[in-house]
Structure formats: structure tokens, C-alpha cells
Amino acid sequence: MINFNQLSLRRGPRLLFEAANLLIHPGQRIGLTGANGVGKSSLFAMLRGELHADTGDVSLPPEWTIAHVAQETPGVDTTALDYVLEGDQELTQLLRALAEAEQQGDGHRQSQLHDALTLIDGYTAKSRAGKLLHGLGFSSAQETQPVKAFSGGWRMRLNLAQALMCRSDLLLLDEPTNHLDLEAVYWLEEWLRSYPGTLMVISHDRDFLDRVVTHIAHIEQQRIKLYSGNYSDFEIARAEHLANQQAAHQKQQREIAHIRSFVTRFKAKATKARQAQSRIKALERMELIAPAHVDSPFHFEFLPPSRLTNPLITLEKASVGYQTPLLENLNLNLAPGDRIGLLGPNGAGKSTLIKLIAGELPALSGKRKEARDIRIGYFAQHQLEQLSSEDSALKHLQRLDPKATEQALRNFLGGFGFDGDDALNPVAPFSGGEKARLVLAILVYQRPALLLLDEPTNHLDLEMRLALTLALQDFEGALVVVSHDRHLLRTVTDDLWLVSDGKASPFDGDLEDYRQWRLSKDKKDNQPSNGAAAASNNKKLDRQAAAAQRQKLQPLRKQVASAEQQLEKLHQALSKLELELAEPELYQDAGKDQLKQLIKQQAELKQQLAEVEHSWLEASEALEQAQAQQE
Do 476 and 573 have their domain in common? Predict the structure, then answer.
């Protein structure tokens, strides 16, 4: 087992954690969580022997083999397959020794080495390495390409495959999903669930943690605490702990009361509407976990777009690609309120489609029409490196809005975690997460009508992801997002589109349907079958029929989504108004006029709320009836 005994660690003058006592048993899968900078990666470095404790100690069995993902990949001529095989060091040593024995003609030594290879299952190593590469998205042709031919993100996948190839007792993974698409994440989850050793993983992907880990080790306030269960279990346990702290509990009561009110009002009325029931379950879960994030440093919201037009963007029989089309016959109308999540395997064209919508890539054929004077907010990883390294976060915003006061801009940046001197420091030494937060702050400040987000959460911690999710739920414009963060997709998108085989079309199902479809498709791809052409034809017909059914339901779905958004806004406005009405000063003589005005506004809001509730219920019931008829 791994034993942390009164462990304390500093980096420079900063104390990361102290007096940590922790026992990790063989076979446990531990998710290591905590805000950026609390010492998660330093803890991994200590387990690898690269850092030493200031006080106390950490011990683990001396015979254990530890595997981790290298952060650098040499630009070598070694093929991808051979590079992955090098992850098994014992195998590599035996193969080198065997080659030497063959050169020397030492038959006895060769026999011994063949026996050793058999003992470690060395003769299936290439097959196992090939499966790892395939699971992480590499094609058969890429297996023989040299490592130096791959881009940075693909090299990180090679490093991950090399770590998984190692027959380790302890596997340390630091943000393993950052460079993966959703398909590869699905595969990695299944692989890790069957991993026989002890796993410790740093991740800000709550769905990934929920599916993989058995325990959460959370670092905060210089302490490490171990929780049983997955991330959702941890959130609830931590929420209960924080609820016992009166100040934190009171700070969350307003939001919890709002959520409980919504659930109470609709639970009895919407028992037959599946979409409504799903919403209610999500709200009930939010009520449980809300206190767990009471101390989040991130709080921001999207202001109404400066201009909204319908449609915002139109694609008509458009094709896009690089010299030759990657996607063809694209038809899309983006209107305010549309919220689309793009699904599809890596390389299918999700980012290319985003670039076409953004206007960064021209259509090779067909038309792209953009509404006049709309603002498009486009987030992509390359924009992190396009920030001015010598300028501060404040300077970046002052360049956008020279007339704004410094205090107003600093208040705005505070919602993104740039408090005090952090807003004045140059961008150059910023971490990936800090740069991502700044790029998001710049986008939000510009009040876009259309948001295009390509993997926005890659460098964000869990608290920032939650803040982004909450802000996007109230965004009034149109949203198109590519992300392997399923929690984000599930909570901010209304429609899923599948980008695959040169096409982009609505996907008939939710994320769980997509996961099952991808896993079953991978299994079928790996098994020989008869009648492949007929099966392909049937699948095509099924997809076409599903798309046609989905198209018929689209207007009703939009009505329900629009009503839900209005309800959220009205509830928030009413909650804010009721807080104002709770002020004692209003009930003194000087506040009588203001009190009358607020009571009048309260009555108007309640009337609007009743009308929108009625519309929402009607639309939900109509949608359910239409779905039942199609089934």
C-alpha cells in the first residue's frame, strides 16, 4: 500500500499541504482533486521520487513499478508502434538481450530469453500496443509513421499509450483526457476500469472521474482528505460538510430556495413530460451539490448580446476543407437560443466546421451567410498562444474598451479569478488554465451573439468549469460547442449533431446513447461479419429516418427550451426582487414609495411567470405526445 505519514510539502515559501495522513490500498483508483496550484502534480512528483517531503514521509512497496505520462516527446524516427512498446521496459530489455544472443550465436541464452518473454506475455506485445493505439484514435497506417511526424497533441497520446503499455503496479495520470476526443475518452474509461494495479489520476472531468475512480483525495486549505466513492459522491459529502459551516450554508440558501421552488412548482404538473422530468432530476441534484462550490472564486455572466438577428449564420449546401472537401452538403441555420454540441471521432471535421461557421475558413462550395453587424465569440486552443505575452489581463481588456474605468474592468476580471495584482501581471508566465480564463473573459466582455467553443475546458479546473456552465445556461445568443466534457455538453446544449463520414447532421439521442453507439460500433469494427454492405445500408436508412423524426420535433423542442430559459430568468428576477423587499429600510417612512414600486414589479413578475409556466407545460405535453406517436 501507499502510506502518507504526517506529510508536509513546500514549493519555495508556499506551503502546499501539511500533516497529511493517507492510506491507499492496492487496486484502489484514486481521483486527486483540488484547485489549480494546491499541489496535485507536486504530489505525483513526490511519488516518483523527484521531490522530497519537508516533514513526514511517503512509503510504497519498493518492488512496485510506477508508470506515468511523460510531458515531453522526442522527435525521433522510431515508429509509433515501437515507441509505445518501449513503455514496457522489461520487454525492451529482453528483446535487446535476445538480439545480442542471436548475434553471438548463444543458443542457451536465447532459450532462456524466449522463456522469459513467454512469462511476461511478450509475444502478444505488438498486438496489445496496436490495441492501445487504436483505442486512442490512431489508424493502422499511423502505427508505422515516425514519432516526429505527429503534432503535439498526438504525441501526448503516444506518451499516454506508452504509459498504459507499462505493466505497472502504480499508474499516475495527470489530466489524461486533455488531448483526447470523446471517443478516446470512452475507450480510456473502459481500459482504466479494468486496470489491475493502483491508479491515481488528476482530472477536472467529473464524468470521467465518476466512471473511473473508487475514491477522491481532495486537497484544500493545506489538507488532504480521502472520500469513498466517485466524484458525485464526493460533492455530496463535501456539501454536507460545508452545510455545517453556518456562513457557507447561509450564502447558498438563496440559490437552493430558488431551485427547490422550481422543483416544487413543476413536480406535480409535469409527471408525463420526459424532458421536464430530466430537468427536475438535474435541479434536484444541483440542490444537493450547490454548497460544495460555495467557495468558488469564479463568478461571471454573459451580458445580453449587443445585436441579435434571426438567423445569425446560414450554411446552404456548403462544403469545407483544405483544398479537398472534408465536409460536404452542410445545411445549418443558427438562430438566437440555439445550443448545439458537436459529436464525432477525431479528424472527422468538428473543428473545421467551427472554423467555417466562424468565417475563419471559406466555403469551398455552397454559401455561408452572416447576419449584419453580429459579434462572433470564437474560442480555440491556438488563441491562448496569441495573447500578448508582455501585457496584463487588464491591458487586454483596456485595448478592447479604452473608455472603461480601470475599476470596472478589474471588477469584471475578478469574476474570472484575476484578483488584485493578478490582473496587472504580464501574461507570459500564465499557466494554460489562466490563459484559457483570460481568453474566455475577453470573449464574454465583447457580448457576442454567437459563441463557438472548441474544447473550452481543456485547461480549466472543476470550479471554473462549473462557473462557465452556469454562465452558458443564461446565454441569450446561439452556441456551438465541441468538448469531451460530457457534463458541459449535457447541461448547456439542447441539440447534438454528429460529424462523421463527410457529413454533419442531427444525432437522434443523448450522450449516453452516443456512448453506447460508439462502443458497440468499435466492437463491430473489430469483429469480422457477413453482410457488411447490407448492414451499412440499414444503418444509413435508420440514421435518415431518425433525422427526419428529429426534424419534425425540432420546433416543439425549441419552444420548450425557450420557455425554460424564460422561466429561469423570471425566477432569478423574482428572487432578486424578494431580497430587496426583505430590506428593513423599505418599511420605514422614507422607503414607502420605493416599496410600492417593488410590490408592483413583484406582481407583474408573478403574472409573467404564471403565463410562461402555462406555455411551458403546454409545449412539454405536446412534445411528449409527438414523441409517443413516433415511437
Answer: no
Q: What is the CATH number of the domain that holds 515?
A: 3.40.50.300
Is pTM, for the whole model, over 0.85? no
Position 438 in a domain = yes
Alpha carbon distance 375, 305 (integer Å): 8
* Tens of pLDDT, residues 475-523: 889 999 999 898 888 888 888 999 999 999 999 888 888 888 887 776 6
Q: For residue 603, what is the enclosing H or E element?
A: helix 592-630
**What are the pLDDT digits (tens) for 386-444?**
888 899 999 999 999 999 999 999 999 999 989 888 899 998 888 888 899 999 999 99
Structural domain contains residue 146: no
Within a domain: residue 42?
A: no
- Structural domain that includes position 367: 313-387+430-523
CB atoms within 10 A of CB 285: 14
**What is the H or E stretch that residue 59 is in?**
strand 55-59
Assess whether 273 and 332 both reside in one domain: no
User: Measuring CA to CA, how many Å separate 514 from each of 322, 332, 344, 345, 506?
Assistant: 28, 21, 9, 11, 12
Task: Provide, for the chain, the percentages of residues in helix, strand and coil under a 3-state DSSP scheme, each rounded to the nearest 5.
Answer: 55, 20, 30
What is the distance between the alpha carbons of residues 435 and 297, in angstroms, rounded to a whole number?
16
Beta strand segments in 455-593, E: 478-482, 495-500, 503-506
SS3 annotation, 230-260: CHHHHHHHHHHHHHCCHHHHHHHHHHHHHHH
As a whole number of angstroms, the distance between CA 546 and CA 581 comes to 50
**Residue 475 lies inside a defined structural domain of this protein:** yes
Q: What is the mean pLDDT of residues 546-564?
A: 65
How many other C-beta atoms can be found within 10 angstroms of the C-beta atom of residue 161? 25
Mean pLDDT of the chain: 83
Range 372-375 contact pairs with CB under 8 angstroms and sequence separation of 24 or more? 372/309, 373/307, 374/305, 374/307, 374/308, 374/309, 374/312, 374/448, 374/449, 374/450, 375/305, 375/306, 375/307, 375/446, 375/447, 375/448, 375/449, 375/450
For residue 554, give the 3-state DSSP assignment: helix
Among 200, 211, 192, 190, residue whose Cα is nearest residue 170: 200
- Asked whether 227 and 233 are in contact (CB, 8 A), the reply is yes
Q: How confident is the model at residue 274 (pLDDT cuts 50, 70, 90)?
A: very low
